[in-house]
Task: inverse folding
C-alpha cells in the first residue's frame, strides 16, 4: 500500500510540472516562439526609445526661410501679430524661423514667428504673414550652409 501511494504522489507531481506532457518538438517550438516574442519586444522598445531620444524633425527644428511680398519690395515683420512694424526685410531675404511659433490673428490668418536676437519686441520674436515665407531649410544663421551662402 505504501508503494502504491508513493507512485500516485510521483505521478501527481509530474502532472504539475508537465501538465500537457509535451514532446521535445512541442517544447522546442514554444521556446522558439518565446525567443521570437522577446526579440520583437526588444526591437519595439529600442525603436520607441530611439524615437524619443532623436531630436525633433526638421519641422520642429530651427529653420531659415526666405520672405517675399509680391505686392511690395519689402516684407514687414511685426510685433504683436498684425501689430507695429518692427523692421522691414527686402524680398528674397533670409529670416530665422521658429516652426513651432505659428500663431493666428483674429481673421484666422497664420503668422510665422521670426527669431531676432536684438529685436525691439519684448520676446525677441517678430511675425510675418505665413504666405510670404518660402524656401525653408533646416538650420540657423550659424549653420555652415548659411555662413557659406553669405560669404560668396
Result:
Amino acid at each position: 500500500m505504501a508503494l502504491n501511494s508513493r507512485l500516485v504522489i510521483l505521478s501527481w507531481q509530474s502532472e504539475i510540472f508537465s501538465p500537457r506532457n509535451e514532446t521535445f518538438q512541442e517544447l522546442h517550438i514554444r521556446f522558439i516562439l518565446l525567443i521570437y516574442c522577446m526579440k520583437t519586444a526588444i526591437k519595439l522598445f529600442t525603436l520607441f526609445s530611439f524615437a524619443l531620444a532623436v531630436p525633433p524633425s526638421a519641422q520642429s527644428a530651427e529653420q531659415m526661410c526666405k520672405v517675399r511680398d509680391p505686392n511690395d519690395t519689402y516684407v514687414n515683420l511685426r510685433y504683436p501679430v498684425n501689430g507695429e512694424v518692427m523692421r522691414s526685410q527686402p524680398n528674397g531675404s533670409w529670416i530665422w524661423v521658429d516652426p513651432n511659433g505659428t500663431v493666428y490673428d483674429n481673421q484666422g490668418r497664420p503668422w510665422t514667428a521670426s527669431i531676432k536676437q536684438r529685436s525691439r519686441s519684448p520676446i525677441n520674436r517678430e511675425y510675418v504673414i505665413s504666405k510670404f515665407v518660402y524656401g525653408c531649410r533646416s538650420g540657423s544663421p550659424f549653420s555652415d550652409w548659411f555662413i557659406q551662402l553669405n560669404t560668396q
